[in-house]
Amino acid sequence: MANKIAAKTTPKISKSAAEWRTQLTPEQYHVTREAGTERAFTGKYWKTKEPGTYHCVGCGTPLFTSETKFDSGTGWPSFWAPIDPANVEEHTDDSYGMRRVEARCAHCGAHLGHVFEDGPAPSGLRYCMNSAALDLKPASENPQKK
Length: 146
Fold this sequence. Notes:
Distance between the termini: 24 Å
Low-confidence stretches: 2-8
Shape: globular
Structural class: alpha+beta
Mean pLDDT: 90
Helix content: 10-25%
Strand order of the largest sheet: 3-4-8-7-6-5
Strand content: 25-35%
Number of strands: 9
């Protein structure tokens, strides 16, 4: 699942911890910069059905659309595919005594969540994301579709 292309072709955004703390709320900072996880069923997007595009809270990169969002029953917003695989980097995460695939924004390195191989067709993947890492731009605000 590792996305090797994004690491080569994606321009990187670099900021100091102080700059990130100024831009992000404490929860957003903890999740995106310290690889934290919000509690299940508490994030603002886990049950949202509003049409739109989910962007990285750190840099505004478009990551997922509501068209690929599904109810995984896990309590976190889940998607079966990113808008552009080059925007989401995947890394091996061996924390907590288990091996998982971590998803990060390819542009600013924000921790987004994890990717699991138990999602629906057509990808079979579940991008299990933290609401605190995402910013939903409703479709009504952007009538043009990519």
